[in-house]
Amino acid sequence: MRKICLILLIFVAFFSCGCHSVRRKFVRKKRVEREVPVYVDFKEYPEVPSTDAYINYYLYVRGWLDELLGALDKGTSYKRKRRAIDETLMNLEQIMVFLSDDGRERIYPIYNGFVEVAEDIKKNRTMSENKANTLIKKIERLKREFEKDFNYVDAEKWML
After folding, report:
1. d(CA 135, CA 88)
2. Alpha-carbon distance 31 to 58, whole Å?
3. Is 138 in contact with 117 (CB distance < 8 Å)?
């Protein structure tokens, strides 16, 4: 009986202490989320907008107008027409930032013309071919006025 008690006591002592490294091996560790380091590159921007920015916005307006004319001519989706006119208006607004008061007065009728076109497009999700042709002629007229008066060489006199 003493032998059995002694073996039982050794057995309990051995298994009650346990092997800590074996137990740790099978327990999941908590994951610690590391914050991603943020790198900030400070850069001094000029007060006066650059000529490259004006030229880029000018080209964006022309590109989006070409896209709009193609979408109206082919009768593609409403979303494509809406995106083209919205981008055109946004880039025209950016161009207006570059101009003095005289330049803004000159570009404002063109801008209003494009706002009217945008309203027509938003009202008529499915427009007839006649309405599309009317809008195409109006957009082409406004585009010619814009290209004639507001390319960089001609608009330089209104720059801030």
Report:
1. 15
2. 52
3. yes
Q: Is-contact 139 65, C-beta < 8 A?
A: yes
Q: Are the C-beta atoms of 68 and 88 separated by less than 8 Å? A: yes
- Looking at per-residue pLDDT, the higher value among 122 and 29 belongs to 122
Under DSSP, is residue 47 helix (H, G, I), strand (E, B) or coil? Answer: coil
Q: End-to-end distance of the chain based on CA atoms, in angstroms?
A: 106
Amino acid (one-letter) located at 88 = T
Instruction: Name the DSSP letter for residue 77.
Output: -
Q: Report the range of poorest mean pLDDT among 13-17, 95-99, 139-143, 152-156.
A: 13-17
Among 25, 119, 8, 139, which residue's Cα sits nearest to residue 72?
Answer: 139
Query: Which own/partner pairs from 137-142 qualify as long-range (CB within 8 Å, at least 24 positions apart)?
Result: 138/113, 139/65, 139/68, 139/69, 139/72, 139/114, 140/69, 142/110, 142/113, 142/114, 142/117
Domain parsing of the chain, residue ranges = 51-158
- 159 forms bridges with which residues in the sheet? 99
Q: If you average pLDDT over residues 78-88, what whole number do you get? A: 94
The answer to whether the pTM exceeds 0.85 is no
